[in-house]
Design a protein that fits this description.
Layout (H helix, E strand, L loop, with lengths): L3 E6 L2 E8 L3 H9 L1 H4 L9 E7 L7 E6 L5 E4 L2 E6 L3 E5 L2 E2 L3 E2 L6 E8 L5 E8 L3 H9 L2 H22 L16 E4 L3 H9 L6 E6 L9 E6 L2 E7 L12 E5 L2 H12 L4 E2 L4 E3 L5 E6 L1 H8 L2 H12 L6 H11 L1
Parallel strand pairs: 12-15, 16-19
Antiparallel strand pairs: 1-2, 2-11, 3-4, 4-5, 6-7, 7-10, 8-9, 10-11, 13-14, 14-15, 17-18, 18-19
Helix pairs in contact: 1-4, 7-8, 7-9, 8-9
């Protein structure tokens, strides 16, 4: 089997490549703009700008530049995201699903683990007609995407190496941080969590065996330090501790709720939920404390009564309850 498999089927073009790095590292190359810029264009072209908001309808905008001053502005949106596994995006819309005048393709990437701990990446593009597909081939789809995937492979391998502690440096940055003690998904959980909110990142990965799983992952979530740790054979989920997120809008509330209960999470009451790793969250719109404080005891009671009937918090429902009491 050759290093890269190229497929031309119906209106789709795609390549398949084994990336010799863990799936978490490959996902970072796709989802973190600073990393994405380093590999996405085959040299001598490069990505000058990349701006992502990885949620359905969120922007996926790039600016590509050539060696002779060429410039290609690409505006699009994310259609589907499954952190660590699948990303679908298109130039058929701009941010917020505003239709684009001249769509060209819908791109997709699927990631899965190989038996030796590497990543199988299928990266493709679907076109609206045969003419656009042939145009993409003439633009150099196969050599261009093959070269870009090789650059991704090199970058993902370097990230895997950088996960090791730096000699002489402290392994943990924060003096205090909540710890979630999981059976074996410490890195997967941390990578998922930092994909949810701005100002979030992986701070350190402790991997005693360079070829084995992480033991501890320290990360920042919206600027607050947390850590996940592997090795708990009998985890017991509890409401005693939870991650509380204050949201600005119903859209943000809906997105976080949807992503956190996906793949085995569970809805709770009054804004509580449990994600697929067993960690409890409270997704609380800022409107809730504002409305409780906006009037007297009667208003607060009406808002509280409305809250008690909800699972995911509905801002319009809270506002309606506050108006009844006014």
């Amino acid at each position: 089997m050759s290093e890269v498999q190229f497929r031309n089927t119906d209106l789709s073009l795609e390549i398949e490549r084994i990336i010799k790095a863990p799936r978490s590292a490959v996902w970072r190359c796709w989802s973190e703009p600073d990393l994405f810029r380093q590999w996405f264009c085959p040299k001598p072209w490069s990505v000058a700008e990349a701006e992502f908001d990885l949620k359905p309808g969120g922007r996926m905008n790039t600016v590509m530049v050539g060696p002779n001053g060429e410039r290609m502005d690409n505006k699009g949106v994310c259609l589907e995201i499954k952190p660590g596994e699948r990303l679908v995006f298109t130039d058929a819309y701009a941010e917020g699903f505003v239709p684009a005048p001249n769509p060209f393709m819908t791109g997709y990437v699927d990631l899965s683990d190989t038996e030796d701990g590497h990543t199988r990446m299928i990266w493709g593009a679907r076109h609206k007609n045969e003419e656009d597909k042939n145009k993409h081939l003439e633009m150099g789809f196969e050599p261009g995407w093959t070269a870009a995937s090789a650059q991704l492979d090199a970058l993902a391998r370097s990230l895997e190496a950088s996960d090791a502690p730096i000699p002489g440096q402290p392994e943990f940055a924060a003096k205090t941080r909540p710890c979630f003690f999981l059976p074996e998904q410490a890195e997967e959980a941390a990578r998922f969590y930092v994909s949810l909110l701005p100002d979030s990142r992986i701070d350190s990965v402790v991997r005693p065996d360079p070829n084995g799983p992480a033991l501890v992952v320290e990360f920042s979530l919206a600027g607050t330090a947390y850590m996940t740790m592997n090795g708990n054979p009998n985890p017991v989920s509890s409401h005693l501790a939870s991650i509380s997120v204050l949201t600005d809008t119903q859209e943000e509330t809906d997105r976080l709720w949807r992503e956190l209960i996906a793949d085995g999470g569970e809805e709770g009451q009054c804004g509580w939920l449990k994600d697929r790793f067993g960690v409890h969250w409270q997704i609380v719109p800022k409107a809730l404390p504002r409305l409780i404080r906006s009037g007297g005891p009667q208003t607060a009671q009406h808002v509280f009564d409305a809250l008690m009937s909800m699972k995911k918090i509905d801002i319009a429902g809270l506002e309606a309850a506050a108006r009844i009491a006014a």
